[in-house]
Write a structure and sequence with these properties.
- Belongs to the adenylosuccinate synthetase family.
- This is Adenylosuccinate synthetase.
- By secondary structure, the chain is an alpha/beta fold.
- Helix content is 33%, strand content 20%.
- It contains 13 helices and 20 strands.
- α3 crosses α4 and α3 packs parallel to α6.
Length: 423
């Protein structure tokens, strides 16, 4: 069985805890795009793990893989492994594999990212971690891959080919070009290459062999649907394809192998950084969602903008991903809000529309049209099965399921593994 899991909104939907919940059913859990600009938090008992690169399936018996469609900062990965090791969790090459073709985020990518964002008159809201510039190099065939990193001669030869280009790019942005050939950085990356050499693998081969043998594979995306570099709210997007179809291309698995596509969606909506968010709330309700929901970025710590559930955006996510099932997270955060609102369409230039306009500038001008639903005051964090939810909460879930047209299979009422249950 091959399952793909993606976020149905702007990221931060709670993919990590759903992967953690279901990964005991999967032999392989694989990350298929993004870099350490994404983050997921997994809580098991009293232990909290904040990760950026390692798929959360490592907590159970799954082997976890980082696919070649990702961009990898080896310093970040080394730090994650060290943090986990201090917590008593050792992840060796038997547990983690990294594709040899994975693009490496170099120090000059990070330098260029920060300089470019600072020079923009209209900010994108990049995390300044070099993600976009690493993807630019991948497309331009100027990347440095994991396979290059583990061979010092090959790395130095590759850097020699690229150095003048990167130095000139940094100078044009008034930065310090010495970062490109800095000996300290080169020595560090050579040592990281030696550290990760035993982890190097062919992810496509591993996945296809596992599927041939009747094993189960879970492909995990980062960010969310509407941050997709092609189909998202361009230019306020990430630098990779976040939708389910890209999992096949990024991992080297044919689309006929896909059995399920699981979408993760919050009971409201959030967004980090710039870009349109039609249902954004800048009032007490928005502050309630932010504070009660702990809506602060795992990677950046930035406060997330919060708004009512946006059905048109989720309907678009259903079309883009082909979801077969959904998981609804953070239902507990809506307690003590009455009435609840759900955006069912927009008004744009005097017309009522049910689907997001294609252009980002038009989406930014959309005025939401709402349905109102009865709220509830009960604390949901102790609920462990759907039938024990208050009637109003059950109606809210059923309403969303009917409007979206995809079954909601999981409901989450807190960060703990035990707080997510089958509907």
């Amino acid at each position: 069985m091959f399952t793909i899991i993606t976020g149905a909104q702007f990221g931060d939907e709670g993919k990590g805890k759903i992967v953690d919940l279901i990964s005991d059913k999967y032999d392989l859990v694989v990350r298929f795009q993004g870099g350490d600009n994404a983050g997921h938090t997994v809580k098991v008992g009293d232990a909290v793990y904040k990760l950026h690169l390692i798929p959360s399936g490592f907590l159970l018996d799954s082997r976890v893989l980082i696919g070649p469609g990702t961009v990898l900062n080896p310093q970040s990965l080394a730090q994650e492994l060290e943090i986990l090791s201090r917590g008593g969790i050792h992840i060796g090459p038997d547990k983690l594999g990294i594709d040899a073709k994975t693009s490496i985020i170099m120090p000059y990518h990070i330098e260029l990212d920060g300089l470019k964002e600072s020079s923009r008159s209209e900010k994108i809201g990049t995390t300044k971690k070099g993600i976009g510039f690493a993807y630019i190099d991948k497309v331009a065939r100027d990347e440095i891959r994991l396979a290059d990193l583990i061979d010092k001669k090959r790395l130095l030869a590759r850097l020699g080919e690229l150095a003048s280009q990167k130095e000139n790019s940094i100078r044009e942005l008034d930065g310090n070009p010495s970062v490109v050939m800095d000996n300290e950085f080169i020595d560090l990356y050579v040592s990281l290459g030696k550290q990760f050499a035993p982890y190097m693998t062919d992810v496509s081969l591993e996945i296809n062999k596992a599927l041939e043998e009747g094993k189960n594979v879970l492909a995990e995306g980062a960010q969310g649907t509407h941050l997709d570099v092609i189909h998202g709210t361009q230019k306020f997007v990430t630098s990779s394809c976040t939708i389910a179809g890209s999992a096949c291309a990024n991992l080297g698995v044919g689309p006929t192998k896909v059995d399920n596509v699981l979408g993760i969606v919050k009971a409201y909506i959030t967004r980090v950084g710039e870009g349109p968010l039609p249902t954004e709330l800048k009032d007490d309700v928005g502050e309630h969602l932010q504070q009660v929901g702990g809506e602060f970025g795992t990677t950046t710590g930035r406060a997330r903008r919060c708004g009512w559930f946006d059905l048109p955006l989720v309907k678009k996510a259903v079309f883009l991903n082909g979801y077969t099932e959904l998981a609804l997270t953070k239902l507990d955060v809506l307690s003590d809000i009455n009435p609840l609102k759900v955006c069912v369409g927009y008004e744009l230039d005097g017309m009522s529309i049910k689907y997001p306009p294609e252009l980002t500038a038009d989406l930014a001008r959309c005025v939401p049209i709402y349905d109102e639903l009865e709220g509830w005051s009960d604390d949901l964090t102790h609920v462990r099965q759907f039938s024990d939810l208050p009637e109003a909460a059950c109606r809210y879930v059923s309403y969303l399921e009917e409007k979206i047209g995809v079954p909601i299979e999981y409901v989450s009422v807190g960060p703990g593994r035990e707080q997510t249950f089958k509907k």
